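**Fold in tokens:**
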Amino acid sequence: MRIAYVTETYPPEINGVALTAARFVRGLRSRGHAVDLVRPRQAHEEKCNRRTEWRVPGMPIPMYRDLRIGLPVVSQLTKRWKVDRPELVHVATEGPLGWAAIRAARANGLPVTSDFRTNFDQYSAHYRLGWLRGVVGGYLKHFHNATDRTFVPTPAMRRVLSDQGFLRTEVVGRGVDTENFSPSHASPELRASWGADENSPVLLYVGRLASEKNVPLAFEAFEAVRARVPTARFVVVGDGPLRRKLESDHPDAIFAGSQRGAALARHFASADVFLFPSLTETFGNVTLEALASGLLVVAFRSGAAAVHIDDCTSGILIAPDDPQGFVAGACAAAHQFRYLDLIRRGARRVALAATWEAVINRFEICLSDAAHAIEVPLIESCPA
């Protein structure tokens, strides 16, 4: 099948959406599908316009200057797909390039599917734009309802969106590479560089340092842990607009910056307790990566944690409205980290069952079904 895959973010950008998009593209190509990747050209990248990839003009996102969005190149996409017609257009992100792809697909009479990746409506409150939440939510619903199917990562997300009026939603989960993320990658040298020994619990946060990630709660948990276990360490992997302030406010934390590949795997495997305080994630890939690495995961009961963690069997789940419960869970895990091997093994077993092979197989089947469906929404349902 020939598939046009459209995304606003893609490696070398480092974020969950970009890395997941790359995983799906590789998976589809490995199964013999011809994938036409359409994405913004990032800073310092060369132009590219081949049959397999087109890097369109882009611009920085105002709140995320290190990320870019694609421009709404409707006419160029319409022409491209008229000359070299795909069987289906898949839109992975909800920016201007995604809108353009929907309109171009409909202009050519092509079926189009989409991913619900990010709760942008929830993000608005974290940037003093809470009054826009309804507008953003309406935009997202209109965007996805203009496509034949919208893929979501969890059953809970499907229920939430269906209650909000989103149509034709299907669950396609996420997987984890359990060879790249494994306890076997633990590094005594890296752990020693953090000033930790066998009696020092190492807490880990991996993700963007931004308001919508609820990062201050992870630091609150660390300070509570350290009050009880003074030898505790907190390693922070990631970057973002809050980094400078967090470094100033928490000089005892270890800021490792962005990590990827083998280095990221070593950071995961060399820690003990993984803190995931976010409540805005549609999934949270790093949760699965922490489980695969055999960590004691402390997370709210949402996203990946709600799907894959059994409380006190493969991790520690906290009710979403209980931030102090999150702090208490982190303290309990850190205080007993040497005696919770059963939970660590449970975490690893959970990850071993969440294979990318199964996820991409389901995605492939869903795309094929959508490509061969008889009923196609009218072009009038698309945005002007």
Q: What stands out?
A: The chain has 15 helices and 15 strands. Residues 42 and 297 are 34 Å apart (CA to CA).
